[in-house]
Design brief:
Helices cover 34% and strands 16% of the residues. The strands form 6 sheets. Strands 2, 3, 4, 5, 6, 18 and 19 form a 7-stranded mixed beta sheet that branches. The protein binds NADPH dihydro-nicotinamide-adenine-dinucleotide phosphate. The site of NADPH dihydro-nicotinamide-adenine-dinucleotide phosphate has 27 residues, from helix 8.
Length: 574
């Protein structure tokens, strides 16, 4: 598509508006991440209850020993386990808070749940499972089912423990094993522990004055109450529904609520960018012709395209760093203005259309793709309550209050997101010399590849900070899983018992992370959101590795080539 020919002043004006929108938003809610809570106790405890839990069987506390124990049963655990099985590992235990595997896809069963990454890339182990997804984009139930199939294929149910939350993970010096305690009284022992607790696993609520005074029904999107709504939302036909938040979850839920609720109020603080979603059923002729190993080949190709992104293309041929940055920003603004024009085309009411326009650079917030979200606002039963950056700050017995009006709703749905990339949620991790991981991180996160951290032997972290971020998270998790499985195999095949990253290797990676962060002021200029820690200032090492995914992958290989240099490897205790 030809680039529009605007003078630089056009772009500068829009950048000015982006800054204004960001400042308005920050002025209303300066406290960054502090504005949220994910400690659901007392009157908030109901928001954490698992509505999908199968009847919990009483069991005796477990005190046995396994080779590998996963904290969490989502894609991190499943992908790594598949590789561990290929390396001959036998005793693998998943300990999971939910009552099945699936992680994010276990919890996020809200109506309309689907993945925004093309299914042939997102669903992992398709070659191994000889499976071709049903559509170009997979719906939640297909992905959840795929997780279950992986667990079955790799025999992961046998030792798995569900409805169980790990509370403490403590390195026992004498036994040189991890002691893993749970809320069910277990003290399981494991040679290797893998923190596979997910990147966005713990739901959070915006702390809003009066929220516990609300007399109607309420729940978080990741704990969808189908008993209340009905499986097909049929119970909502005489209900007034309110939803707080307009992030990726809400964007998928709103069209479903719009079709089924008597009345829907969407309480918006900052709009998401919504682009087209090109979905279609998988062509059976195409599927039939796929050669073995097709997914691996495809992933490599997709990665090459990802790295040659919109902004990188714009930067090609730019002369100076300033010129390069200017071209990137202008390309980004062109994209966002296309998003605005799309809204104008779809949304009938001009005031609503204007309120739905995002005023920030592309990728300041997680981009969304949906064909039915914007049209939902043309329905007579749907009303956008645009709080213009302020957000809902008060909830009364009837419902959310904005501009002096209390919106009377029967049910209030919190689409307010999740805590981000915390290692050891619900869980205290204590390594050698009684060092608590959070205390170690108090002066900044320290890892090698985001996976190993010194003083915590045989502990591996998945999906945490200091790893490379990937829009297709399963690609990233698969490389981490492959790396971890190879490290464990190295320990076992060479007569060792444990590995712990050397201080030098850890320092090298911390420096790498710092060197690749903050080359621009982009993140600070963004409107707040979980991508930039809600506008909180961040230590340079407390974030993702920004050197590129391919480079991250290559570094994993380099680390493994020099295992004896990068790790302190110890033999089995006598
Ligand atoms: P997000 O954190 O992205 O969104 C939370 C929303 O709540 C934001 O719109 C936020 O506004 C709003 N909010 C918070 N407090 C208030 C308040 N007081 N009043 C009004 N609004 C408020 O959470 P999601 O669950 O939507 O998404 C989390 C992530 O999960 C996604 O970014 C994505 O990575 C993943 N996901 C992926 C999906 C997919 O593949 N399709 C689908 C769903 C989720 P503000 O922006 O102003 O902070």
């Amino acid at each position: 598509m030809p680039r529009p020919d605007h003078p630089q002043s056009y772009y500068d004006d829009i950048k000015g508006k982006f800054k204004q929108a960001r400042d308005v938003r920050l002025d209303y809610r300066p406290p960054g991440t502090e504005q949220f809570t994910s400690e659901f106790s007392g009157e908030l405890a109901k928001y954490a209850v698992d509505p999908y839990a199968k009847a919990v069987e009483q069991r005796e506390p477990i005190t046995d020993k396994v080779e590998v124990l996963f904290i969490g049963g989502g894609f991190s655990a499943l992908l790594t386990s598949a590789r561990l099985r290929e390396h001959g590992l036998e005793s693998i235990r998943i300990v999971e808070r939910g009552s099945d595997v699936g992680g994010t896809w276990y919890w996020n069963r809200y109506p309309g749940a689907a993945c925004d990454v093309v299914s042939y890339d997102y669903l992992p182990l398709l070659d191994e499972l000889d499976y071709v997804p049903v559509d170009h984009y997979s719906r939640g139930p297909e992905i959840f089912g795929h997780c279950q199939k992986i667990a079955k294929k790799y025999n992961l149910y046998e030792l798995a423990v569900f409805n169980t939350t790990v509370t403490e993970t403590i390195w026992n010096e004498e036994e040189q094993l991890w002691h893993v305690k749970t809320d069910c009284g277990d003290v399981m022992r494991a040679q290797f522990v893998i923190c596979a607790n997910g990147t966005l696993a713990k739901p959070k609520l915006s702390t809003i004055r009066g929220m516990t005074s609300f007399a109607g029904h309420s729940f978080h999107t990741s704990r969808w109450d189908y008993d209340y709504t009905g499986v097909d939302l049929e119970n909502l036909k005489d209900k007034v529904v309110g939803i707080i938040g307009t992030g990726a979850s809400a964007v998928q839920i709103v069209p479903e609520l719009a079709k089924n609720a008597k009345q829907l109020y969407v309480f918006q603080r900052t709009p998401s960018s919504i682009d087209v979603r090109e979905d279609w059923p998988t062509d059976p002729n195409w599927a039939r012709k796929l050669e073995p190993g097709w997914q691996a080949t495809r992933r490599a190709k997709v990665l090459a395209v990802v790295e040659n992104s919109l902004e990188k293309r714009a930067a090609k041929g730019a002369t100076s760093p300033e010129e390069k940055l200017r071209k990137q920003e202008n390309a980004n603004i062109d994209y966002m203005m296309r998003i605005h024009r799309r809204i104008d085309k779809i949304v009938d009411d001009q005031e609503t259309a204007d309120a739905l326009k995002p005023w920030y650079m592309f990728m300041c917030k997680r981009p969304c793709f949906h064909n039915d979200y914007l049209p939902a606002f043309n329905r007579p039963n749907v009303q956008l309550v645009d709080t213009k950056g302020e957000g809902i700050t008060e909830i009364g017995p009837k419902g959310p209050v904005f501009n002096g009006k209390e919106y009377d709703v029967d049910v209030l749905i919190y689409a307010t997101g999740f805590e981000v990339q915390q290692t050891g949620i619900y869980n205290t991790i204590v390594g050698e010399a009684n060092v608590n991981l959070q205390d170690k991180y108090a002066d900044g996160i320290r890892t090698l590849l985001g996976i190993h951290t010194a003083g915590f032997p045989n502990l591996f972290i998945m999906g945490g900070y200091q790893a490379s971020f990937q829009f297709n998270l399963t690609d990233m998790l698969q490389t981490q899983g492959d790396h971890i499985a190879a490290c464990i195999d190295y320990v076992r095949s060479n007569g060792y018992h444990s590995l712990d990253v050397s201080d030098e290797a850890e320092q090298w990676w911390v420096d790498e992370v710092i060197n690749h962060r903050g080359k621009t002021t982009r993140s600070e200029e963004c409107t707040p959101g979980y991508y930039n820690m809600e506008g909180d200032s961040q230590r340079r090492q407390d974030g993702n590795y920004n050197g590129g995914f391919r480079q991250y992958f290559e570094h994993q290989g380099e680390v493994r080539e020099k295992m004896e240099e990068n790790f302190n490897l110890k033999a089995k205790p006598a």
